[in-house]
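Work Package 3 (structural annotation) set out to generate three-dimensional models for the target panel prioritized at the project kickoff. During this period the team completed the workflow that converts sequence records into discrete structure tokens, so that structures can be stored uniformly alongside our sequence database. As a representative example, we reproduce one entry of 323 residues exactly as it appears in the project archive.
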Amino acid sequence: MKKQVLAVSLASLMSIGTIGSVTAVNAEESDKTYTVGICQLVQHEALDAATQGFKDALTDALGDAVTFEEKNAQGDSNTCSTIINGLVSDNVDLILANATASLQAAAAGTTDIPILGTAVTDYGVALEIDDFDGTVGGNISGTSDLAPLDQQAAMLNELFPDAKTVGLLYCSAEANSQYQVDTVKAALEDLGYTCSDYAFSDSNDLASVATSAASDSDVIYVPTDNTVASNTEIINNICSAEKVPVIAGEEGICQGCGVATLSISYYDLGKATGEMAVRILKDGEDISTMPIEYAPNFTKEYNPTICKDLGIEIPDDYKAIEE
């Protein structure tokens, strides 16, 4: 009988010990905090929306347990490197690299801290990966803002079937802009257009290159391009004076200088990136196995003000961009 009592007592103690251990682990997990670094290339509507969506997704999931070190490079890729080096020195738990130059700087800055890109068009191009299969591997994953480029070409054709020449205006310093232009150009040439590249190196020569493009083209196409996005007023002033319509790669650019776009929601893209971050930080998912995610929906949109100024009628299935 005494042996039975002793056995029961020992079992009870072991059970209490186990419960105590589990409670301690749960308490430790609930007390865990995360610092997330954000490197955004430049301030403009699309990238701002992606950053906000990312932060909202993390805050919704982790509450006060997550804090952000948010930095903006003001359009300077060298500053991106400086920002990334600072985040690595601070030993943040995860880095959001918003735009291609930020991703490239982050990839060069650390192979240990998880990196999620967003508003990056093509990761294979950005990171110079041959035969890219959709998963970067290592410590990098993220989301892509690539819209169906053949459908953007089809949109231009739908709105301007009688146009003959298309000028492709983009920043040559942005690898993903070159990729978009090459892809759209092939699709447009298949539709019978004559296309010419108008590449500018930075904002300093944008006006002169845009003037040449507007003078020589019936329609201008601009891809998802961060330098363009930061200087839409320059392009709009030039193209409006020449009465040349612009088809844009995304909503923010279209709002500034375009007549129409096939675009994604950058807020939703950032939110999807934030949900990936939650799976990495909270659930322990292995970033090396996480494929790049893409926006699920695309919307035909138009700029009512510029369309009215240019006398362009838009089909009913286009959504007006709100000012």
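The chain is about 50% helix and 20% strand.
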